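Hello forum,

I keep getting stuck at the same step: I have a sequence, I want structure tokens, and every attempt I make locally crashes halfway through. Rather than fight my setup again tonight, could one of you with a working pipeline run this one for me? It's a single chain of 361 residues.
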Amino acid sequence: MLNRDLARTGQDFVREAWYLAAWSDELDRTPLGVILLGQSIVLYRRGDASPVALENRCAHRSLPLSLGCVRGELIECAYHGLQFDASGRCVHVPGQSRPPADAAIRSYPAVEQDRCIWIWMGAPQNADTAKITPFPWMAKKGWRQTKLHARIAANYQLIIDNLLDLSHLSFVHSSTVGSPELAESARVKVEPTEDGVVVSRWTLDVPPAPTYAQFGNYDCNIDRWQISRWFVPSTLVIRNGSAKAGSGAQTGDGEQRFEFIVCHGVTPESDKVTNYFWAVTHDFLYDDLPSAEEFHRQSHQVIGEDIAVFKAQQEMLERQPLASVVDIRYDAGPLHARRMIDARLAAQARAPRKEVSNVPA
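Reply #2:
Ran it on my machine without issues. Output:
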């Protein structure tokens, strides 16, 4: 049975992980306030453009630092002008020669990679950048992308469920990327990995969905693939593609190949709100801007339809938190993800209780 704790308050999150905090073009020298895993954080860029993530609170009277400004390498509080460096140490207090010894706030490891700002929410000494989910298509030469950052009134696990069970395309997205065969005749394989799960979905010798017919230029049946790779706890890469039926798509060949890749960052704000980062990337239509814009419009229609589903699910979970639910065949991938998250949370709860701190001594 599905975990029914989605509507509860106070849900904990996996903290020893990199989370997508912002798209690169969302961040400049102006402080940006965000709430991630229940923590209020301020992001900004230093003079060399490197990202900084700090506790969004002045150590003096707790005004959010996101209301202040960046001066050189320092962020300045808008209330009394205290200035903090990238380590979270207060280095200047107007009107006195030196700051109080304990005037410091927590800093978080932050990295810019693949046009994304990533933040480590756990113990700073464990922040291994090799564990960041790669999104190389975001910055790949010759590739276009369209993206979205939305705050959604829904629990993050509802979004992960959606992305690991793509049978919903048949019903939610029937006018664009959906077709009946995705639910009725898909061949689905679930492969657990050390850091997540891969769900492979193939539908063979089927009519193309409307978006595929239009941009793949198909006048024949196709073999279609959807390969969803989830990285615990909150990022996914989905490869979507097709080729002329029977032309070798399953071995990596195939005539009239048509493929696009979708990158997802699913970052909880709270147990009821999620920061959802979504980007469609593709290497076709690069020189055909009108067609690319139409492909992007249809892609945004798809994500808008999904968001409406997430919100409706959350509302019902809160209204009837004890209602009975069942599992179906296509739930194998989502259930594996939930079990992995539960295992990480259980291990986190068993760990010695320490105040995770990156506050300068």
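Residues 131 and 259 are 26 Å apart (CA to CA). If your local run keeps crashing, start a new thread with the error log.
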